[in-house]
Amino acid sequence: MHIEKNVFDNILNTVIDIKEKTKDNLNAWKGLKIICNRAKLEVDERRPNVMPKAVYTQTKEQKRRICEWTSHLKFPDGYVSNLAYCLNMKELRMHGMKRHDCHVFMQKLILIAFCEMLSKSMWSALTKASLLFQILCLMTLDVNKVKNKAHVEASIVEAYLVEEIGLFTSHYFEPHILCKRNRPRRNDNLCMNDPRIQWSIFNYPGRASGASKKRWLRGLEAQSVT
């Protein structure tokens, strides 16, 4: 997964044009003249130290839209960390993403994020890179299940049999016994309706997330409640 993170970081930093991390530098443009016969992509000899803007590099407004879109993403509990914490809205960049965050973004989000920002040819290349890692992940084995290195196949089969047997037998447990199948999620508190709250619109099970804040009801809102 660390290889996937490195590829994702290189793609993201290049497209968003992070100066100190992008792979789209002046040396790369000068190398195009040697390995690629495309005159329009070559550096102007009259201005050898000026690098032209790449067609896949995002503008400031496009980068702002991508960051705002990412900040409003919502995921199931435990699926991925809060990506809003990895955004720097002042510099319009992402930082501090863990390997699993990059894994989810590379395979599930990057195609949606840049769908309207890149040309068809650029987006097609990005699609192939994303699908590549999806296929590789389907072929990846959990090394933690391999206990006997001399008999890898048998170790994997035995580990999965134990896992399936444990899941199957859990269906015969008493309802009050918590197991992998019926264990509540981290943010579930299984609370009943609070009898102290008289208005049903404020009486929903669960608990709020994030910082609390006050908001007064407007005239029409207060009338509809009362």
TrEMBL record:
It comes from the Eukaryota. It holds the Pfam family DUF4218. Residues 144-187 form the DUF4218 domain. InterPro entries: DUF4218. PANTHER family: DUF4216 DOMAIN-CONTAINING PROTEIN (PTHR48258:SF4), DUF4218 DOMAIN-CONTAINING PROTEIN-RELATED (PTHR48258). This is DUF4218 domain-containing protein. The lineage of its organism: Eukaryota, Viridiplantae, Streptophyta, Embryophyta, Tracheophyta.
